Structures are given as C-alpha cells and as structure tokens.
C-alpha cells in the first residue's frame, strides 16, 4: 500500500483523488472547520489541526512515499496583496520545507513531493517566488518539474492550477513519465517563460513531466445543477430582474442568445467591479459555455458564484448550491459537506479538483513508485535496471 502525508489538507480532496490504493499516515490543516469536515469524511485518526509551525516529524508516522502540500494561495494570487512567499499565509511554504528537511535528516524523506497552488505563483515577485520554490527543492536533493492542469479537462469548472512535482535524486524514473521538452497542454507559455528564467544550476535538475491527455469530459455544467437544492433558494422574480439590470449590453446579448437556444441553458455569474466612463460600477457577468467560473473562497457577496437557468423566456437565478460546488470539484454526492453555506463553499473553493489528482497519480506517482518498489525487491541487477530506465525516461511518452 502506497503511503502519503497531506499538508494543508482541507477536506481531504487529495486523499479522494489518490484513492483506495493509498494509505494516509498523516494529515494537517490549520482551520478547525476544515479539519472537522476532513474527519467527518475520513475519520479522525490522521488529522492534526494545528499551525504547521508547531509540527515536527514526531507527529507523523513512518516514511511516506508521497508528501502533498497545497500551501495557501492568498499571497500569491492576483486577488491577493502580493506579499508572495513572504506573506503570513503563503509563507507557510517555508515551515513545510523545514519539516521536509527534518524528515530527510531522520532518513524518512519521501520519494515524491508534490506542491499545488495558483498559476500566479509562477509570476509572483517577477518569478522570484517560483525560483525560490525550485531552490528549496534543489537544496533538499530533489529533481523537479511543473505542470499547469486546468480542471476543466475533467470537470466543468475553469480552474487552472500549478503542480510542482519533485523526486529524490536516487529515484528511478520509468520510461514515459518524462519528455524531452514541454508538451501541451501541461506546459503553457507562461510556464515555459518562467522556466527559461531559471539559472543553469536550477535547470540541471529540471524535469519535463509527461502525461497523456484525458478523454473528452463527460459532464457539462448543466448536468451538475440541482433542481431543488437544499442549501440555497431560487431568487424571486424581482431579484432576478435586479441581476439582469447589472449586466452590460454584451452580457444581456448572451442571455438573449441563450433564450433562443430552445433548450435549457445554464450560465455561471460573477459580480465584478468595472470602470466605465471613469466610474466604478458593479456588473454581473455571465458565461454560457457549459463551464462554471473558478470557485473561490467566499470573502464577500461578489465572490460567490451565481447560476442562471434560461429556458425560452423563463429566466431563474440563485446562488450556486454547496452540493454543486462539490460536484464541480469532482467529489461524489456521498461526500459530507458542512451544513453552513459559507463553510461548505470555503471548503470546496479552497480544494484541489479530485480527478486532477487522480490523473497525476495514475500517470506519474504510481508508475514511479511501482518501478522503484520492484527495484528494491530485486536481489541484484539494480544498477543495470537503473541505467536502462534512465536512458528510456529521456524520451517522450508515445501517444
């Protein structure tokens, strides 16, 4: 059974994505409400609710195959204050790295470290924060690479995220998990630009991870909508009219196009402040492309996503339900959500899309660990096998 530690675990969406073939040996989150949701779904044996600065390897059981850290994004996101890795929240990356160093000193370092955060991490402080992450992993003795994965490949939600995946230098990489260079869609123009800025020393340890593209996404946004949600109510006619009055001509035209479709159309709405003729105005902006906008943690009314259903002349609006947010993250309906709306929205909006984790695990983590387990079990021939795998791994995965 493969083992893992999950830091900044939230409600355990990484655990859901890794699946039953993995055993969690330790989980941590600072937020007691998220910790309660984690325990409600996974039991309370592994979760430790505490500031990561208060933790040590003594709190953790065994040597994990994988350590996952989705450290806070607030100081790295475009909507944040721009403090980057020096901020109080995103700066928890450094205590995380300190724990990795302590595990290493005790000969308990994981074979794989995976970090997840917003794409803005790449350009935070003109790329210096991304380079600092690479330096920290390099100092630990790991090789590393990065992927940009948009959850919309798997679920109907626009949610691009940066995944930095690092492996110990003595870990053998099987053929197919690496490529000769960047690949679409995983290595975007932004990632390639920031990678080009790395020093020669940093690039020596860079890995171009390779994954197959997933098949066509099965569900559209309209497939996930509840007709009778329990966590929210449909708006009154006057409330819906008020939302329509906040739309620009461009967005009202989208509504008219949806009315002419002669089938039920579901749109996602965010309220945003725009400058028009030198004046700040609040606008309701809608999209009818079968994809929800990126879920965000609710810090105010403008950050809560609304939905609009249009069927001919009938137009209805409401807040997105908490179960719908969970479905947009790839969680099953059996997943237990907090009863309070904001708590549930915060939990899902701050998580990692479950099928994205599964895809990375299936195509990178598990092949690496399977090969290295086979090598460990061999009585001889390890050097030969390592040489063969290292040679093969320089080629791209066949498609």
Give the topology.
Elements: E1 2-7, H1 13-18, E2 22-29, H2 32-42, E3 47-49, E4 66-69, H3 93-105, E5 112-118, H4 128-139, E6 142-150, E7 160-168, H5 189-196, H6 200-203, H7 237-245, H8 249-259, E8 265-276, E9 279-287, E10 306-311, E11 314-319, H9 322-328, H10 341-349, H11 354-377, H12 382-392
Parallel strand pairs: 1-2, 1-4, 2-3, 4-5
Antiparallel strand pairs: 5-7, 6-7, 8-9, 8-10, 10-11
Question: Short description, anyone?
Answer:
The protein has 399 residues and is an alpha/beta fold. The chain has helices at 13-18, 32-42, 93-105, 128-139, 189-196, 200-203, 237-245, 249-259, 322-328, 341-349, 354-377, 382-392, and strands spanning 2-7, 22-29, 47-49, 66-69, 112-118, 142-150, 160-168, 265-276, 279-287, 306-311, 314-319. The strands form 2 sheets. A 7-stranded mixed sheet has the order 3-2-1-4-5-7-6, sandwiched between helices. A 4-stranded antiparallel sheet has the order 9-8-10-11.
Brief descriptors of the model:
single chain, 399 residues, alpha/beta, Rossmann fold, 2 domains, 7-stranded mixed beta sheet, globular, disordered C terminus
Beginning-to-end CA distance, first to last residue:
29 Å
Number of strands: 11
Query: Which class do the helix and strand fractions yield?
Result: alpha/beta
Instruction: Give me the CATH superfamily of the largest domain.
Output: Vaccinia Virus protein VP39
Please count the helical segments.
12
> What percent strand?
15-25%
Assigned CATH class of the largest domain: Alpha Beta
Biggest sheet: strand arrangement: 3-2-1-4-5-7-6
- The percent range for helix content is 25-40%
Number of domains: 2
Give me the Rg, rounded.
Answer: 22 Å
What is the CATH topology descriptor of the largest domain? Rossmann fold
Please provide the ordered H/E string of secondary-structure elements: EHEHEEHEHEEHHHHEEEEHHHH
Q: What is the CATH-assigned architecture of the largest domain?
A: 3-Layer(aba) Sandwich
What's the overall geometry? globular
Low-confidence segments: 73-80, 391-399
What's the main sheet like? 7 strands, mixed
Average the pLDDT over all residues and give the rounded result: 90
